[in-house]
Structures are given as structure tokens and as C-alpha cells.
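User: Can you predict the 3D structure for this chain?
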Amino acid sequence: MNRLEDPDMMLDQARRDMQESLVQNRERAVQAITQKNRLQGMLADAEKKSAQLEQQATMALKQGNRDLARQFMREKSNNDAVIESLRTSHAQALQTVEAVKIAIKRQEEEVRRKTAEALAMKAQWKQAQIQNSISKALEGLTFENQLDTFNAAADRIKDAQAEALARQEMQSESVQGKIMAMQDQAMDYQAEEELQKLEERLGMRPKAVEVQPEQTVALGVGGDVPTAPAAEVSLSEVDKQLEELEKRIQGHEKKG
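Assistant: Here is the predicted structure, written as C-alpha cells:
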């Protein structure tokens, strides 16, 4: 039991636990970034597909095949709905990844601080052991005429040690308070940036496209990314887009 409760062993175990937790959290961060990259790739592919469908519709109109052009434009409209859903999910993934990076950075700072504290505590433990040895040696002395002197010396040593520990504790709390203040300031800067982004989404900047809840893609760390089904586009909307495309084509032919 004495060995299991040895402060050196306890501090070493605590340091190993912190390191293992940090490694696990870094792996989770890697998985989150991987999912974000997958969403980014899916979004790029969907945007490329929409551009290709519009080119195919243009070729069909030039060849006089309006029905085929209509089919291409209808498929493009459905694919555009998927693009909007992917953009929303990608934006959420970016925010999640940034939050994870900040959390990992804070944990790394905490591990470094605790490691330094553990080294200081181990030194204090060694010093306490030495003091106990001195005290035991003093207690074993049998000449009474010098006993009071040795006891007084032992008390002075203990008082000096207690005072040194108190000063060290106050200094540690002061340094820790400064570190916490710096961390709070960094969090304030981050919150201000997020507030500016929120103002942009509320209309101070180009308004983001609103996506219905059933079209939201949930990001799961380590899991697959489900994609909401694309909504069917009405026939009148497709005709409208098709007429606009015909006008652009006719304009280009007249200029040519």
C-alpha cells in the first residue's frame, strides 16, 4: 500500500494519463478533419456536375433538342439543391474543426503546465523525506542538555520549509492567474470573430442560402456523412431557367 501511495508513482501515473488523453483527442481531431475534407470533396464534385449539366443543356439546345435540354436542366436543379445542403454541412464542419483545434491547443498547454507542477511536487516530496530523516535523527538523540536546541532547530527548519512552500504556492497561483487571463482574452478574440461571422449571416454581408432542416447533413466523427435527398423542382421553374439559357445562347449567336 505504501508503494501504491508513493507520490512519485502517483505523479508519474497522472502524467501518463494526461499524455494518453491528449493522444486520443488528437486522433479524434484527425477524424473530424478527415470528415471535413470528405465534405469538401463531395461539394466540389457536385459543383462540377452542375456545370457539366448546364453545358450539356446548351449543346442540346444548339442541336434543336429541347426535350433533352429540359432533362439536363431538371437534373441540374436537383443537383443544385444537393450543393446547397453540402455547403451548409461543410460550413458546420469547418466550425467544428476549428473548435477542436482550439480545444487541443488548450489541452496541450494544460499538459505542459501540469507536467511542470508534477516536477515541482516531486522535488517537494524529496525535500520532505529529507526533513523527516533529519527529524528522526534529532528525535534519537539522548543528551538532554542539547535536546531543546535540536528541537528548536527542527522547528526552525519546519517553519522555513512551510514559509517557502507558502511563497511558492502564492507564486504558482499568480502565474496561473496570468495564464488564465491570457486564455480568456484569446477566447474573447475568438468570440468576436464568431460574432462578426454571425452579423454577416444576418444580412450585413451577402445573405447565406437557407436550407430546410430535413436537408441538413449531420457530421459524425468517425462515421459516414449522410446526404439529405434533393427536393424535386417544379416544371415551371425548369422552363424559366431553360428560357433564360435560350436567350443567352441566342445573344451569343447574334454577336457571332
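Residues 7-255 form one domain. The CA atoms of residues 153 and 159 lie 10 Å apart.
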